[in-house]
Amino acid sequence: MGKIKSGVLRTGRRWLTRLLIAVIGLWLAGIIIFAFLPVPFSAVMAERQISAWLRGDFSWVAHSSWVSRDGIAPWMPLAVIAAEDQKFPQHWGFDVEAIESVLDKENGRLRGASTISQQTAKNLFLWDGRSWVRKGLEAGLTLGLEGVWSKRRILTVYLNIAEFGDGIFGVEAASQHYFHKPASRLTMAEAALLAAVLPNPLRFRVDAPSAYVRQRQAWIMRQMRQLGGVGFIQRQHL
User: Taking the C-alpha atoms of 32, 35, 37 and 43 in order, what is their torsion angle to the nearest 10 degrees?
Assistant: First the structure.
C-alpha cells in the first residue's frame, strides 16, 4: 500500500508540475502576443461569463469592443491615471508607498487598490478577488508586462479590458452604452465619471451616479487639471 500511495503522489506531483509549466507558458505567450495584437477577452470577462452561465443566466453577455489607443480621447487615460495611479509613468509596476499604505499590519490582510500595471495583469490573466496567492502571481505577471510592453501599451490594454458596469468591459463599450458615442469623443467630465466608478463598477453606476461618485468625479477632474491636462499625456507619450 505504501508503494502504491507513494507512486500516486509522485504521479500527482508530476502532473501538477506539468500543469503549472503549461499555465506559465500560456501567460508568457499572452504577454508576447498581446504586446502587438488586440485582446479578444480577459480572464475577468471569462469569469463573469462562466458565472452567469452557472447560475442559469444565458442572456448575460460580456460586452467588449477593442479600440486602438488613437481611438480613445486623451481625457480617458488622463482620468484613470489621475484617479488610480498618478505615478504610473515613473514606476516599474509597483508603487512602494501605496503598497505600504494598503497593507493592514494588524492582521496582515490586503486592502486598497493596485497600480494600473497590476490591475492590467490581474484583469487579463487572473481571477477576481483578494488573496496572497493571487497577489504573488499578479506581481510576477506585472513584471512581465513592464518588461515587454511600453507604458502606452499597458494603458491601452487596461482601458480596453477594464470593467465599467455589469457586462460592460472596455472604454469603447462603456462610451457607446452610457454616452451613445465612440470613446474618441469622450469629454473631460465623461472620462472622469467613467474613472470614478472603477474602484467598484458593480456597486457604483455611471448611469445613476451617487453623491459619492459625483464627488469623486469632481476630485478626479481637479487632479486632471493639476497634472496638466491632456498635455501631460502627450509629454509622457501615453
Answer: 80
CATH of residue 214's domain is: 1.10.3810.10
Residue 21 domain boundaries: 1-33
pLDDT in tens, 58-91: 888 888 899 999 999 999 999 999 999 999 999 9
Query: What is the C-alpha separation between 105 and 50, in angstroms, rounded?
Result: 35
Instruction: Tell whether pTM > 0.85.
Output: yes
* b/e burial code for range 75-110 (CB count within 10 A of at least 16 → b): bbbbbbbbbbbbebbebebbbeebbeeeeeeeeeee
Cβ atoms within 10 Å, residue 175: 27
pLDDT at 25 over 70: yes
Q: What share of the chain is helix, strand, coil (3-state, %, to 5)?
A: 60, 5, 35
